[in-house]
């Protein structure tokens, strides 16, 4: 059962998302919050698998709520997905930098929304290749994160190759095919790289790959 926390200051939207999620046998909405502060508190109380958090809210906004959740070791299992009305913008990138696993535009079709929740629960990044390209081209044009650059020195050649492919939006199966290895071995390379770079999930791994200079927009 996938446990979901809904955090949005608009009751009607929360009700709509909840009604959609409650129809699924493998998904359970464990709590709802109307602002970021309450959302963080409920995340600590319920330990959901996925926290769907609006980016713009009173008291504490979605970016700060994401940062607080990502910084708490007790909430390592919580995958934050940012909800936005505006699509790709600087706030979305800041949320990814803060530790979000990905983001969804609120006018997403129901089938894609449910698929996204399941993807996030597995720990995969909600960053399609097209979105990754837009994200990187707009916001990551030069190395910014020296800590990540230092961490890259600890990666093996194969781990660096796997991280670069993750940054291109490839799945484990696609990475395995490209590297001519098994999907399990590809997953192992990625997990080890995440541990060495202190990345919570694949989305953060993508950000670190570009910020460190391992992958640049012109490589695409």
Task: Describe, in plain words, how this protein is organized in 3D.
By secondary structure, the chain is of the alpha/beta class. The chain is built from eleven helices and five strands, in the order E-H-E-H-E-H-E-H-E-H-H-H-H-H-H-H. It has helices spanning about 10-20, 35-45, 60-70, 90-100, 110-120, 130-140, 145-150, 155-165, 170-180, 185-195, 200-210, and strands spanning about 1-5, 25-35, 50-55, 80-85, 100-105. It has a five-stranded parallel beta sheet, with helices on both faces. The model has no long low-confidence stretch (mean pLDDT about 85).
Total strands: the figure is 5
Q: Major sheet: size, sense and barrel closure?
A: 5 strands, parallel
Strand content range = 5-15%
Spell out the helices and strands N to C: EHEHEHEHEHHHHHHH
* Averaged pLDDT: 84
H/I helix tally: 11
In the sheet with the most strands, the strands line up as: 2-1-3-4-5
Cα-to-Cα separation, first versus last residue: 38 Å
Class inferred from helices and paired strands: alpha/beta
Q: Determine Rg (CA atoms, Å).
A: 17 Å
Oligomeric organization of the protein chains: single chain
The 3D shape can be described as globular
Helix proportion of residues, in percent?
40-55%
Low-confidence stretches: none
């Amino acid at each position: 059962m996938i446990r979901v926390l809904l955090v949005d200051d608009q009751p009607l939207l929360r009700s709509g998302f909840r009604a959609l999620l409650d129809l699924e046998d493998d998904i359970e909405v464990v709590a709802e919050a109307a602002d970021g502060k309450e959302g963080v508190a409920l995340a600590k109380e319920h330990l959901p698998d996925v926290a769907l958090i609006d980016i713009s809210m009173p008291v504490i906004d979605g970016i700060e709520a994401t940062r607080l959740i990502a910084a708490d070791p007790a909430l390592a299992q919580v995958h934050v997905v940012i909800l936005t009305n505006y699509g790709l913008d600087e706030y979305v990138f800041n949320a990814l930098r803060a530790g979000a696993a990905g983001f969804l535009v609120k006018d997403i079709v129901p089938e894609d929304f449910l698929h996204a929740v399941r993807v996030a629960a597995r720990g995969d990044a909600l960053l399609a290749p097209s979105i990754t390209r837009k994200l990187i081209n707009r916001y990551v044009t030069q190395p910014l994160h020296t800590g990540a650059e230092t961490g890259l020195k600890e990666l093996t050649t194969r781990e660096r190759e796997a991280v670069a492919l993750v940054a291109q939006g490839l799945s484990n199966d696609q990475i395995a095919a490209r590297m001519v290895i098994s999907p399990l071995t590809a997953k192992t390379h990625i997990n080890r790289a995440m541990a060495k770079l202190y990345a919570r999930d694949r989305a953060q791994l993508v950000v670190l790959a570009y910020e460190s200079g391992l992958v640049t927009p012109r490589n695409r």
